[in-house]
Structure formats: C-alpha cells, structure tokens
Amino acid sequence: MIPENITKAHILQGIKDIDSEGIKSLHTMSKIYDLIYEDKVYPPKLVISLANKYANGEVLHYSKFNTNEAQKRLRETSAEFIIKTKDNDPIANIISRYKDYIKANSLQEEIYKWELLKKYKNRPDTKAADFYTEVKQVNFSNLIYPVGLLVVYHIARDMTEPYRECFKRLFNEKAPLAERVKYFNEETLAIYRKLVPDERFSHHQDERTIATFLTYHNPSEYTLYKHSFYQKYCKLINVKPKSKGQKYVHYLELVNEFVLEYIKDDGELIGLIKANLNENCFEDENFKILAQDILYQTLDKQIGMGRSYWRIGTSDGTNSYWELMEQNNRICIGWNELGDLNDYEIKSKKDIDNYLKAEGFYLDDNRLRSRKAGEIFNFYNEIKIGDVILAQDGAAVLGIGIINDEYQFNASDGFAHQKGVEWKLLGSPLNNSEGLRTTVYKLSDINLINKVNTLIDNAGLKITVENSQIMAPPLNQILFGPPGTGKTYNTVNKAIAITNPEFNLNQPRENIKQEFDRLMKNGQIIFTTFHQSMSYEDFIEGIKPVEPKKEEHAVTYKVIDGIFKKACNPNSNIFYLGQKVGSYEVVNISPELITMRKPNGSLISFQFSMLLKLLEYLKSKNIHLDNFSGKIDSEDIDKKAFPELESYIVNGYSNIIPGLLKIISHNKSELDGNNIVLIIDEINRGNVSQIFGELITLVEEDKRLGKDEALEVILPYSKQKFGVPPNLYIIGTMNTADRSVEALDTALRRRFYFTEMAPNASLIAKEGRLRHQNGLLEGVSLPELLETINKRIEKLLDKDHLIGHSYFMTVASLDDLKSAFQSKIIPLLQEYFFGDYGKIGLVIGKGFFEDTKDANSENVFADFDDYEASDFSERSIYKLINANNLSDEDFLVAINQLLKK
C-alpha cells in the first residue's frame, strides 16, 4: 500500500533522483506503463518508491504495492503526470496467449499439478515413523526428473535418517531460503557419495527437485521450477539469470513480482482458472502454481504459437536457382510440367501424386513419387505467410527469410512454382543437415530453430517464437515403467511415426504391425534386446571367427560390424548383400567400401567417397549417367578440382561403374531423407558403459555428424573413422521392476529423454476389447480391479512394481481374465514378493488360495529332544489355486473377495 502522505513535491523529488542517478533496479521498471512528465519517460513504481524516501525517510520496497496502485496515485496527484501504455509488453502477450489457450483447451493437461498438491500437501512428513515409506508414497509424477526420483528412493531407503534430517532443515522456515537450498544440495550429495562413490553418478538433488519438495510442503509459499523456462523468462524481461544454487531463490522473487503485477488483479484470468479447477484441486490462493503454469506452458510448451520452419532446396541437381530466388524475393520449386496448381482442385498429396503420374514422373518408383508429391503439396498448401524459410544448397544455408506472399505460377522461370519471401539474412553462416537432399522439408530440430531465431533477431527482426507448433521427437529416448504398461507396444508406434510420418496410426493393430515389419525389412527400424552378456563386440564391432569353406582350411578371423554400427551405416541401405550389379555380386558393405565378387570369383572394392566424387564430376561436366561409358580419359579430368579421380578411374570398370552410380544416384537421395530407428528393449539389463564404450558421447544431438560440435572416433578393431548420423533415433525401454534401474549409468541418464509409462486403468474401458461395455465383465469393472490391485502393491512395495493395464486390454471373457491372472498377474506377484504368500494374499484375497492342512500333520516331524513341534504341525499351508481350473462362479467369488464386495 502507498502511504497517503506522499505529495506532488515528493514525487518531483523522486523524478529528480532518476534524472541524476538513472534507473538502478529492474524490479521497479514497468513493463506495461510509463509515466510521462515534461516529455520524459519514467517507471511509475520507481517514482513512487523514491518519493516515499522524501515523505517517510525510506525507499518504499517494490513488493509493497503494484503498478496499478502507482499509476492511480500519480494520476490523482496531478494532471501533469500522464500515464501511457507501452506498445508491446511481452508479459502481457504471454498471458493473453495463455488465456486463449485455456479458453480453447481448459487445464486438461496440467490440472494434475493442482490435484497432486491438494492430495500431498505438507508431505513428505518428516515426523513419519518410516520416512522411506513416506517418501515412496508421495506421488511426484513428472515434477522430478525420473532418474532423479530413483536416486531419491535410493537415499531414502539406505540412508533414511540422514535424509530425513535434510528435509527437516529444508522445511525450516526460520532459516533463509538460499541457505536451506545450499545445505540440502550439498548434504544430500555427501550422503549419496557414501552410497555411490563414483562421481560419474549424479545425485540429482538439484534446484528442480528441491523446488518440488518445497512446493509439496507448502504450495502457498513456493512453486514448481524448471531451469528451462526460468532462463527464458529472464531473457523475456531482460534480467540476468543467477548462477547455479541461486536460481530458485531468484525465480521465486520473479514469480512474486509476476503475481503482484499481472495476476492478482486480472479478474478474467483468475475466473478462467477457477472455472477449470475442481474440488480435488489445491486452491492456490496466492496464485504461485498459476504463475508457474503460465511460464511453463507459454515459454516451454510454446502454446498458441503457429509458425513453422521449412528447408527449401535451391537446385534441381544440375542447375542452381538461388540467384532467381534471391533477386526476385521468392522461393521456387520445379515440376513445371504440372502447370499452375491453382487450376486444379488439390485436397491432398494424393491429388499431386496423380498429376505427377499423369505427366510421367517416377513411374517405376511409387514411393519416390509419393514423397515428391508430399513435398509439392507442402509447398503449395502448407507453407503459410509468416513461416520461416531456409534456402539451402546441400547443408549450406544460403538465405533465411519470412514468407510474405501466396503461391503463384511463373511459367517462364526454370522453377515456376513460387511464393513471395522477405529475405532477412543472406550468406548465413549456418549449416543444416536436417532434410538433406529434399526439395521441401518441414524442420523440427529445436536447436536449429533457436539458432535461426537468434540469427533473425540479430539481423533486425524480432521473432518471439522460440520454436514452432511442431515438437520433434527426441533423438534418444527411454520409455520406463512397470511390466505391462505398453513400453514395447508404444515403441512400434513411435518408430513408425519417426520413420514414416505420413503413415496413419489410427488403424487396426494388424495394419500397424505390417507397416512396422515392412520398415524393419527395409532396414529403417532395427530391434535388439540388451542382456547381461551383450558386449561392445556385439553392439559396435568385434573380431569374430569366420567358418572355413572347407574342412581342411584353418579358421580365420574378421572384424564384424555390430548392430549399432550397421544402423549408423547408410550405405548398407543403398546396397544389400547378394545384390547383382551386372555380372558382379555385392559381398560386403562398410561405411567406406563396397566389395564385389567378379565373375571369376576374385574380389574388388570401390570406395564410396570416390564413387560420390565421380558423380560430382559427371554433374560438373553435364554427363548423364545413361551416356556414361564407365571410362574417363586422363586428359579430361580437372586435376585441381578432382585430384583423386585420375589414379582411381582412368582405366575404368566400364562393365560395373555405371551400374553402381545409377544405384547410388537413385537411392542416396531417398535414403538421406529417411530416419532410422534403433529400438533397444530392456536397455538397463546390459552394462551400458561397456556396450557403448567410447561412443556414448557420439549419440548426443550436437555431436552427431553434420552438427556444429560433430565428433568422430577411430574404432579399435577396424581402425575406421566413425560418427553417428543425425537421422538415427534410439528408443530404449526399461522395466522399473528390475532393480538395476536404480544403478543406471549416469552417462546414459544425461543423454536420453525419459518418458514414464505408468499403468492407465482408463485405457481398459476406452480402448480394450471390452470398450463397448465400458470395461465391465459379468458386473466386474476391470479398471477398478486393476486400480485395487495396484493400490495394495504400492502400499506393500512401491509404484515401480505395479501391474500394467496391458494384461487386461485383451480380456473379453471370464476365460481370458482367468488366463490373465494365472499366466501374468500371479507369476508377477510371486516374483515381486519372493513367494511370500501372505503378502500375495493381501493383494488378491483368499479366493485364489486353498488351505492344504494335512490330516496326519501331527506325525510329520522327526523326534528331536527339547524342541516342541506341535505349533508347526498345526500351521496352515496355503497353495495358490490354478485360476484356469476355477468354475466361472468360484472365479467371480474370488474376484469379488479381492474387491471386498
């Protein structure tokens, strides 16, 4: 509140101070309003703060009042004080976007935060008798980094009391927050090092984790935090971010100001949120959780943004059209034979495909024609005004621009299909390998998009979009969760979406599996499973024995490529073993060489680099492959431009070279546009450090071939240079019921994106075989059955050992449900509880057991002096009943006993 005794004279003194000393604090700067006095601009809050110094002897702290109060006081004090709204307020912009998004989509994706905070407020309870169990029972969802949560459980289990003490210190409101954050981080690290001395393993008790603990403890005073949107918000308001360990404290200060200045008095915003919260939600009277949600959704998730980014090729393989594009402010593509696309009724790429076919394009390659039809359709229909364009020759970005005009057809130009563009940057230093060898390609590399935005910003155009509406799948990701949650099932969909984005996944499962099998056969999807005996030699490369062709021949040894190396070798998808090229046969393919068997049985190898150089040479000479004899006269070679070719190809292999070049020319561009997916099932069961070896660094996005920080290594056995291509995606799966998850190699943690696959009972009713009955079978709700079982398991163990929904998805009859219990659920419970039938009984009830007490049990034990065996003789022995052998009536009785009905 602003003191009543501040007068115009005091305000003028404050203005005088600003004139002489300038603005020292960003907190007092207004982001919406300016005070105009004698044609000068002043921040209203700072003026009032300084005026209070002359009225009451001290500067009024910015947190004591808001901008609305400051501007009101200034207007009331004097007509000379004019309040003017700024033209562009970035914070007001993100709030406006947030409101629009909530109106259209509600809080459906983020409401879980309010629900969790009501359910688990004031937890974990440091006074709980069993602090480990207390920590395990709190559902932190995705608010703590998944691998970090495993470390939390590890410390809580093995160092319970020291960890409890850390929480007590963290929750002690009497101590300064900065000290508490510092203590918790450092002390938990010291505790963790007693458990895991290896410094490669992070303890993950960082500011994000600490913020989550504090918010659960007291959501009225604290809020959730992520480094990503904190950094973006600092950039948005032009505030320098704090260093590590000080970020969360600073973030809370910014949030408090955000609430005070923008949220507290915004009735529309508050009304929108209240309308979307329910009785299961934390009330958030201080709007701290709302503030976090606005920052997260607008800055990290980029809700409400629709700009797309595109790669446009500038050459047809022979001629460059960059000069046409640059001088005429246009982007252009070929296929002039199609004519003006505005003359057709084009609804999909299928229409373009038909027109290409009618004009005789790609008649012998339906897939290539389909892909090119998609590129033309994207150019015509999908590239919008405002989209960002990267005009490229290969990986080189020649220009960056913004689309400013619609499609037009100029038949006189070599590339006749055109759209207007305003070039913002010519001669860009940027290189981009995403979408290489395509004409039109929608970009999704978030790092590339950020670099493009930075370049445009520096060129004078401010783009507030930090990424587009599309979200690229991570290059390295791991799906983790309990058994039966659909981890392996979902890798199929994810792999298809990456390798064939145009495939419709809303089809029967058989169709999806057929497409998956086709992509595996084509080499675009590779599937493997890690196990304890998997080695570097199996995964990367190793020396293996080669079986002799004749018994009298000695065993020889050869360097054999492993699964990962093959996945990284694009040449293996251009040719295949056993392929005939003329009278020659392909017998080996490596990243550097293709080895052929001649008709006489001898072998000859060709370097891919030389074959590509030869293609480049022929292009420079305008020699069509159909007219190439396979021989080049030495005198014709430009020895400066192509010094390698003279010694390599002068004598020619006229009967094989043209055939090889045609295959490379035909398939190389098709291959380069495709993504490859390597699926590693049970990735945590192998020794990741040993299996990946030195290559674990190479899978990082910025270390991939073609990236700014690209790395290559020399492999130990083959001595070949090796790097990981940018189009290789790795999808791993992990079973959290396997204890080895907790010891997951830290190198893997840092380089993979983790997605939790939790049991989802609602899917049984929505997508299971009983979906038309809403998951009901003979009066039994299968979703309720799964939730009941899992609640009990979580009480007895933890959420890592739950039962997945997939075991119930295929149930359509009582026989199916019996089989699910007998072959899936009961064996898992036996594994989880190590045969402790008492705990198994607490989960599924007595209906699945029989008492096998022996009538003659009194005489079962041998005589042994001074030891009374009668207690044991009378003890009940329980045996699990085979669920398949139960009658329908008895089975339903057992199920209802489980459900306590």
TrEMBL record:
<dbReference type="InterPro" id="IPR027417">
    <property type="entry name" value="P-loop_NTPase"/>
</dbReference>
<dbReference type="Pfam" id="PF07728">
    <property type="entry name" value="AAA_5"/>
</dbReference>
<protein>
    <submittedName>
        <fullName>AAA domain (Dynein-related subfamily)</fullName>
    </submittedName>
</protein>
<dbReference type="InterPro" id="IPR011704">
    <property type="entry name" value="ATPase_dyneun-rel_AAA"/>
</dbReference>
<dbReference type="GO" id="GO:0016887">
    <property type="term" value="F:ATP hydrolysis activity"/>
</dbReference>
<feature type="domain" description="ATPase dynein-related AAA">
    <location>
        <begin position="677"/>
        <end position="752"/>
    </location>
</feature>
<dbReference type="GO" id="GO:0005524">
    <property type="term" value="F:ATP binding"/>
</dbReference>
<dbReference type="InterPro" id="IPR052934">
    <property type="entry name" value="Methyl-DNA_Rec/Restrict_Enz"/>
</dbReference>
